[in-house]
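Today's session is about reading a structure prediction critically. Students often jump straight to the picture, but the first step is always the sequence itself: look for stretches that repeat, for charged clusters, for runs of hydrophobic residues. Only then move on to the predicted structure, which in these notes is written as discrete structure tokens rather than atom positions. Here is the chain we will use throughout the hour.
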Amino acid sequence: MDMEGTTMKKGMPFSKEQISRANRVNLIDFAKSNGYILENGGRRALHAKQSGGLYFFKDNNKYYHFSTDTHGGPIDFVMQFWNMEFKKAVAYLLESELPQYQPTSQPVKEQGQLVLPEKAPNFRRVAWYLIHVRGIDPEIVSCLMHEKKLYQDKSGNCVFVGYDHEGMVKYCSLRGTRLEHPFKQDRPYSDKSYPFHIVGNSHKVYVCESPIDAMSHATLAKLASQDWKTDHRISLGCLSDQALKRFLHYYPNIAEIVFFLDNDKDATFQNGSPAPNWGQEAALNFVKKYLDLGYTSVIATPVTEDLNGDLLAYHNIIHNKERCGTLDYGIEL
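Below is the predicted structure for this chain, in token form.
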């Protein structure tokens, strides 16, 4: 879906120049003015929170939506996310008083290198945050720190690291630990096709959206008296399967894939109308794709919004049952 090449049709109430002007409305400014919360999504893009893997590109005034595999410019965006027909989308954009997108000269493509943030003298804040705020098991936190997949930077952020098969750093994602100032960001030159990986030794992989979700699932397994080191767990970092494809290339013995993506059951569009359940729609598309490729593929859905929400809810149940003296450790994974 891309209306860039739209031409004047018979009876069309807009001229070519008006259509072109609508498609030159600055898409990032438009998204911000309509309530999208944008964060760094890499050198070229901004990521919209809780929007099913929605990215806006700074250098071409376009967007890409991973959940639906759709892309385009401002007109396409309004048609898709405001559910408008073409004429209404053009009129809506023309009525906005936002600045026009000003293309910049294309710089020579940089061959930059991912640089990890400097480590803090100790990792106490990250350990406190993951164990006491997020409910992650201390052994799992300690193990990942020992494997250099998790540490604390000098700003107190969680740093999650992904490697290639030769142990070279390829992916780095930061997560803030200050509850009053939520923060999440990928480092420049970070490659999302290299997953954050909790290593296992079985033929099964659990696919999660974030590193904290992967750690939460490992914790739930341990709480259920399972060996959390048996199965592989990876995080996609978004709703693209690039990281899964690379993982499967590195681990050809994998036979079963469990998609444990977010349950965005309460998602809404910017106008407040119900939006699709982005995480589960992506999981459904992935299951079909990987079944066709010969893998045993299934969907597991969090009861709450995500796996960390499930873990925190479980801790709360345990706490309440301990107080009442009716402890039951049954967990379904």
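Discussion point for the tutorial: Residues 124-324 form one domain.
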